[in-house]
Amino acid sequence: MSKYKTSLVLEGGGMRGAYTAGALSWLIDQDIEFDCTYGISTGAVHMTNYLMKSKDFLYELAVKKITDPRIVGIRPLLRCGRIVDYDYLFDVILTKEEHFDISPLKTCRDGKIGLYHLSQGKTIYHKVNDISMKLLEASTSLPILGVIVKEDGEEYLDGGITDMIPIQKAVEDGCTRHLVITTKPGDYERKPAKDFIVWLMKKTYPQCDNISKDYKIRHINYKKQIELIKDLENKKEAVYVYPSEHSKVTRLGGSFEELDKLFWLGYNDMENKKEEIFSLLKGND
Fold first, then answer.
1. Helices 17-29 and 256-272 sit at what angle, rounded to 10 degrees?
2. CA-based torsion, 283, 43, 241, 51: positive or negative
3. By the 8 A CB rule, do 42 and 188 touch?
4. pLDDT tens, 133-182?
5. pTM score
6. I want to staple 270 with a disulfide (CB 3.0 to 4.6 A). Which of 26, 125, 180, 239 is the partner?
7. Distance (Å, rounded) from C-alpha 274 to C-alpha 31?
8. Are 165 and 229 in contact (CB under 8 A)?
9. Cα→Cα distances 129→136, 273, 279, Å
10. Phi and psi for 178 in degrees, rounded to 5?
11. Which residues partner with 7 through β-bridges?
């Protein structure tokens, strides 16, 4: 066993999460586990399937279910006035149709998902052994596109507002070896949010002064997170896995064929980095 405290760190990315699902399927095939796991947005959802060893459903959800026209597009826009219907995905498709059960997570002590807490105006982390389907939904509910998700009187949105890649949380928790999986190519640069979007955030969430401020500096936070990952990588304390090829899949768009290709790209990219991954987890310097 490793003498280090290991972490698995997962970015979000909407439909681009098919890449993450493929990478996690490889980890399941290799029977690799971590001391701690951290997921944001779609990464949080796929993380739960990884922790429950639900390999088949990783593919089912990331490649097949996510393209259901009832979730994204004209139909949800007409039904609920939003281009993405998260309630339909979680309450109807996952809960009623697929009987998606997160009760096995009760035994997972060290998995955490990031959520943006509106009254606190910051991203907080919930342990997966104490989450509900509503909190899992909240972890994916994008600002503006999604709705505020309420649980026990508290209001939540996607934690990617500040923590797009939850590497800092892993470091703060004392993890010393990290496998980081992101859904953007290595040459990706996040651009500053447009002034109109920042203004819209302020008007949409008047109960939270911080959210528009956080969104305005989102590109700066993302750059800091990437820099931290690369610094850890240079010190042989992290393996950084990201798409080795560009994909046509976007956050809210992608065909079955494109998602299938992205899934297997994630799987194969992990296979191509297996020696680095094994060395990291064994604690070899």
1. 50
2. positive
3. no
4. 999 999 999 999 888 999 999 999 999 999 999 999 999 999 999 999 99
5. 0.94
6. 26
7. 13
8. yes
9. 12, 30, 29
10. -130, 135
11. 36, 178
